[in-house]
Amino acid sequence: MHRVALTYTLAGEHTPRDTHQSDLHHPLMALLKAVHETGSISAAARRLELSYRHVWGELKRWEGELAHPLVTWIKGQPATLAPFGEKLLWAERRAQARLAPQIEALRSELEQAFAIAFDDAAGVIPLYASHDDALPRLRDLARAEHQLHLDIQFTGSVDALAALNEGRCLMAGFHALIDAAPRSPTAKVYRPMLQPGRHKLISFARRTQGLMVATGNPLSITSLSELGRAGVRFVNRRLGTGTRVVLEELLHTQRLVSADIEGYELTEPSHQAVAEAVASGRADAAFGIETAALAKGLAFIPLAQESYFLVTLQASLAHPQVATLLALLRSAAWQQALDAIPGYAAHRSGEVLSLRKVLPWWNYRKPKR
Questions:
Q1: Which residues, in sequence order, are CB contacts of 117 under 8 Å at separation 6+?
Q2: Which fold has domain 27-94?
């Protein structure tokens, strides 16, 4: 097995992020991707702003290092990746998709550490949250406008609430279908973890969840019931994730049996990872958010609108950093940014809500006739 060593760069606050470079990258993968997309070593060199000689030399050096051919090139014909080069690029892309939440959490943790080291006035909110594409944007805006650092640790919704209850964070993020019944799968998971009077919900966003399928939807999948068709391969999210709870709620409501779905117990750690599984052909369908599907060029079938909440303890509402964050969530700038994300909508963002009023499984009173 080949050894992998990780490094990171430390740049000034105003240094622009390289849009051609991911948070976890390797120069060989950049070379292979450029050759694959341009069909030319010289064009790949221009895209990477490197010399032809350097790119050619690096490809040959890596072929010797790895003892496998990487590029097939015949004079007068387009350059293509050799089978091993294709496989190597696929493996890196798959690993990046699977590890995206962990990479984002690692970067956030490093940035928080250096923020504390360099700026005594910087505020920090430790936040455990179910993975969400809007939260990193909120983190960037909070840092830019208020020197407020959201120390985001991405995890499942259940683990996020557990971290809050155990005192490991100041806020948690989870999402759910709020119209679930008192004895629904959703209520069974979240009711023991939230207590009226102790926990306070903060409205963050409405999100659309649905099915991700291959471009053009070649299997004509339009509903959850069709996941039970013979030959349809599904890939799921892990137990403890909010998306898994939403899916089980929908299956319960529609009286569908998970055992009938091929691949239901095969799991990936994030929305990006299940989207990559569909994009690569390892699965025919997955359940997740629209932005992850669009990022991989997949078709998306919307099935449910859920609410994403931030949660804190009642005593923490008076925390000055929490007050700053609530004001930012209520700002027009943030709500416009949220509305611009596919599948998202600003809904009472920044409002402190009552558990009993918002989550119906806390209200057992029969409606008046």
A1: none
A2: Arc Repressor Mutant, subunit A (1.10.10)
Q: What is the 3-state secondary structure (H, E, C) of 124-140?
A: EEEEEEECCCCHHHHHH
- Going from N- to C-terminal start, the domains of the chain cover 27-94, 172-362
Contact 242, 185 (CB under 8 A): no
Quick one: which H or E segment has residue 201? strand 199-213
Rounded CA-CA distance 17/345 in Å is 27
Q: List beta partners, residue 210.
A: 288, 302
- Its pTM stands at 0.69
Torsion of CA 97, 98, 103, 108, to 10 degrees: 90
Residues 6+ positions from 259 with CB-CB distance below 8 Å: none
**368 has a pLDDT exceeding 70:** no
In the predicted model, is pLDDT for residue 329 greater than 50? yes
Q: What is d(CA 190, CA 174) in angstroms, rounded to the nearest whole number?
A: 10
Segment 10-41, tens digit of pLDDT: 776 666 555 445 567 788 999 999 999 999 98
Task: Say yes or no: domain 172-362 is CATH 3.40.190.10.
Answer: yes
CB 37 within 8 A of CB 86: no
H/E segment holding residue 312: strand 299-313
Terminal alpha carbon distance of the chain = 69
CA trace torsion 153, 154, 160, 163 (10° rounding):
-30
Confirm if 174 and 355 have CB atoms less than 8 A apart.
no
